[in-house]
Amino acid sequence: MNPEKIESPTIDQVGVEERVAKLKSRSIKKDSKVHALKMAMSMIDLTTLSGDDTPGKVRQLCYKALHVHDAYPGLPTVAAVCVYPSMVKVAARHLEGSGIQVASVATSFPSGQSNLSLKLEETRYAVEEGASEIDMVISRGRFLAGDVQYVFDEIATVKEACGKAHLKVILETGELSTLDNVRRASDLAMHAGADFIKTSTGKIAPAATLPVTLVMLEAIRDYYYETGVKIGMKPAGGIRDSKTALQYLVTLRETLGNDWLSPDLFRFGASSLANDLLMQLEKQRTGRYQSADYFSLD
Q1: Is 241 inside any structural domain?
Q2: Is residue 201 part of a domain?
Q3: The domain spanning residue 148 has which CATH number?
Q4: Domain enclosing residue 220, as ranges
Q5: pLDDT for 41-60, tens place per residue?
Q6: Could you please report the per-residue DSSP string of the chain?
Q7: 78 touches 46 (CB < 8 A)
């Protein structure tokens, strides 16, 4: 496919910001709020992507993923644990049989500044170690230089290297400068074979924002109308509290409908969101906030 022929609409930034402001004003109360908080928990990719990650730290994160719901009957587990390729085997061993996915970043995360052969080698290594999902970064420099053919081909080649693993394509929207670029990169990634499109690595500010997410959701909607294929969405970076998470779910539902209200098609990339969701659920259950000290720091 010639990516130059992929048509992306011009984005009305003022219109996007007005739409987001209206969606943020929506209020969710009582039973509906509890349901939404539990849904948000089921969509979390519990993440550790630090230079000081150790097998012990990853084992602790996996323990949290497996037991975060123990004190709350009916609370779902998180969707996945996301780690570096070197930690995939540790995570896969501890999550085996749980239904929780093992996600791995790849392709020289977070910069993407490496050659394609190394990116493919890293992708295959992560899958061989047990990753069922790969979060790749696009080559933003190439994209911003206008070399969309390179970016398209790279995504398609990484998708092939994933085998049966799902591919999430990270746009790193904080480096794309404009909403027009976000829309263009979203369309490019989906046509090249992405199973999910993802906002950010979490290493660049700004990371996930509601305006950027809305533009990406609208791209997913238009791609679905065009092809009949449902692509997933993953905002990542800076989503730390329940209020923000619920705003994303409202935006998701109003843009794509109920079919996307599933961890199969929507994820939060987060490290601390689970704790706040637990605190909010406890508040809904007892009327009192618990101290953050009652929850793990991971």
Answers
A1: yes
A2: yes
A3: 3.20.20.70
A4: 9-294
A5: 999 999 999 999 999 999 99
A6: --GGG---PPP-HHHHHHHHHHHHT----HHHHHHHHHHHHHTEEEE---TT--HHHHHHHHHHHHHTTTTSTTPPPPSEEEE-GGGHHHHHHHHTTSS-EEEEEESSTTT--S-HHHHHHHHHHHHHHT-SEEEEE--HHHHHTT-HHHHHHHHHHHHHHHTTSEEEEE--GGGS-SHHHHHHHHHHHHHHT-SEEE---SSSSS---HHHHHHHHHHHHHHHHHHSPPPEEE-BSS--SHHHHHHHHHHHHHHH-GGG-STTTB-EEESSHHHHHHHHHHHHHHSSPPPGGGS---
A7: yes
- Report the b/e string of 251-273 with b at 16+ CB within 10 A: bbbebbeeebbebebbbbbbbbb
Structural domains in the chain (count) = 1
Note the pLDDT tens digit of each residue in 168-213.
999 999 999 999 999 999 999 999 999 999 999 999 999 999 999 9
Tokens of 249: 């779910």
The reply to whether 2 falls in a domain is no
Whole-number Å distance between alpha carbons of 170 and 133: 13
For 285-296, the pLDDT digits (tens) are 776 666 555 555
For residue range 228-242, list pLDDT tens digits in order. Answer: 999 999 999 999 999
What phi-psi label fits residue 112: left (phi over 0), alpha (psi between -120 and 50 degrees) or beta? left
Mean pLDDT of the chain: 94
Catalytic residues: 135, 198, 234
Rg over alpha carbons for the chain, rounded to the nearest Å, is 18
